[in-house]
Design goal:
Layout: H1 4-15, H2 24-30, E1 38-44, H3 50-65, E2 71-77, H4 83-92, E3 99-103, H5 105-113, E4 126-132, E5 134-139, E6 154-158, H6 165-175, E7 179-183, H7 186-191, E8 197-202, H8 205-212, E9 215-219, H9 237-240, H10 246-260, E10 261-267, H11 273-282, H12 284-292, H13 294-297, E11 299-302, H14 303-312, H15 317-331
Length: 336
Amino acid sequence: MTDAPAASRRRLLAALGLAPLGLAPLRRAHAQALLPGSATLLVPGPEGGAHARWAERLAQAIATGAPTAVQVQADVLGGADGVTAANRFAAEAAPDGRSLLVLAGAAAQARLAGDSRAKFDHAGWLPVCASLGCAVVAGRGPRPALGAPARPPVSVAVGGPEGSGAAALLAFDLIGLAALPVAGNPTQLWREGRAQALLLSGPALPARLAALGAEPWFVLDPATGERDPTLPEVPPMAELATAQAPALLGACRAAGAAARLLAGLVLPALTPADQVALWRNAVQRWLEEETRGSALTGLAVPGAEAAAVMAVMSPGPEAVLAYREWLLRRLGWQSP
């Protein structure tokens, strides 16, 4: 026979959203989250491009390594800069663990610069894992001595004001080396001898530096004093900086983090913590496989490390405003 007062008490606690202490562990165990049977992964284009290949390897690793069966359906859209995919994700993704995005560093850079195409805010997105490269400013011969007498400005290849090449120019300003921007394709400008310095980012940088005959001058660091494991002997920008401009330093670090991000797998803001943890566990096999091939594909990092990079990549409003004002002052550019 049911104890009426006890049953009434349980109903009252349930109505208030509370569980009796004795039942709480049982209910939590019963409600333990599982990965969804299927999920949609938005991927920057083109079909067969670098991000699509990265996503394919990732989806295969999840399918074979996740504790429960998960089918990840890739939806490739937009260009390689990832802005279209990020816009769609921001507009349509629900925080239920069924929607993920391959975030391109170029998309974060476009957002930082105020590109009018970037309608998203990635600050609250939750990283599952990422592939990181290196971002190094390289030049012809040794780096000019800091504090030396005035010399002709260094010509710096800047692909476009909304891209990461502009951050290389900002780095020159912050470390006190006179520089002039040269617009155009950075590699072509270098090969034609019209640029004395350029920003290189991505994997396999030592080989690319050797192929271009370029000397690494400094790296765009995502955090003060951090040395990039790819080029540990090369000083980070913050180690050389002389300007007392905290907001611009933060903006330059954000641009450096974006330049390092080859691809990041993210969930929407407000996705439950248990779903985030399950997805991070599901990519463990991928992390192990990518680590073995990191010389070609970048450094595979788990969610916690990816989150640290994305935190730097999402600076506060003071740094964003300072960077956009600098773009207008230095390059005469502002988003239409």
